[in-house]
Write a structure and sequence with these properties.
Structural class: mainly alpha
Order of helices and strands: HHHHHHHH
Oligomer: single chain
Helix content: over 70%
Number of helices: 8
Number of strands: 0
Length: 274
């Protein structure tokens, strides 16, 4: 986006001209009033001469103020016209190109940041494998998504057990507020993944938690009017599994620059021939 220059008088100069014009008007009014008094009411030749002098000063001051303002407006119009038709017309493609280049540079910077995270992840994973004394342990490290700790896997397994237990409990028992209970599991999975990858300051991460908060209860009640409650519960828990996997995949890509379970083929061949 480009910004055009706005040539013209400064505000202080315009205020000065307005004050000069006002002074001229007041001076003309007083001089005319005094001239009428000195000629009609009480004739005074000396006063008439003074009145004519002040009347001339007022006329000159007012005329000069108006003339200066008109000249300034005229030159301002010429400068604006010359800028719009000449300089701006020639500079506009250059300025547009600069803006496009700036956008491209931001895009390149974003890609470089992702590449940097990806390289850092590869280095960390390679360091883990080289420090690993046992091939079996290396195989475990390879099976876990890049940047994911063993502690996270344990927590995920534990939360999976709790989620399945809640699912079975809701299927075999009729409890109220099932939609809110289901929503809690969405939030728990979001908390687990977000805390593991430290995404609490990421706007997209917060969008990912507000989506189920807004959609799950309403959709649950709408589908409940057309489907059996157990089928609705099963559907939302299947969607929960998809939600957790997609959010986990995005979290790994956002923080590590690579997708989860994306095995490095060269590294795999390297360990295959050991």
């Amino acid at each position: 986006m480009t910004t055009r220059l706005q040539p013209g008088m400064k505000a202080s100069e315009k205020a000065g001209l307005a004050l000069a014009l006002l002074t001229a008007i007041l001076l003309l009014g007083l001089a005319l009033f005094s001239l009428i008094v000195d000629t009609i009411i009480k004739f005074n030749l000396y006063g008439i001469l003074i009145d004519l002098i002040f009347l001339g000063i007022g006329i000159i001051l007012g005329y000069s103020s108006i003339r200066i303002y008109r000249k300034s407006a005229y030159y301002e119009g010429l400068v604006r016209s010359a800028f719009d038709e000449g300089i701006y017309t020639r500079l506009e493609p250059v300025l547009r190109k600069i803006a496009e280049t700036s956008v491209e540079m931001e895009d390149i910077e974003s890609r470089l940041n992702k590449i940097d995270r990806m390289v850092q992840t590869v280095i960390e994973e390679q360091a883990k494998l080289e420090k690993s004394p046992q091939v079996a342990h290396a195989g475990v490290e390879r099976a876990i998504a890049p940047g994911t700790s063993i502690g996270f896997v344990v927590k995920a397994i534990f939360l999976t057990i709790i989620t399945m237990s809640g699912f079975l409990f809701m299927i075999y028992t009729s409890i109220g507020m099932v939609h809110f209970a289901t929503l809690i599991f969405y939030i728990l999975w979001w908390l687990l993944i977000t805390s593991e990858y430290k995404l609490f300051d990421n706007t997209t991460a917060w969008v990912m938690v507000f989506m189920p908060i807004l959609l799950v209860p309403v959709s649950f009640m709408i589908l409940d009017a057309f489907m059996e409650i157990n089928n609705v519960i099963a559907l939302f828990y299947a969607l929960l599994a998809l939600y957790a996997f997609l959010y986990f995949s995005w979290a790994v890509y956002e923080t590590r620059g690579t997708m989860p379970f994306n095995l490095n083929l060269v590294r795999y061949i390297k360990y295959k021939h050991r």
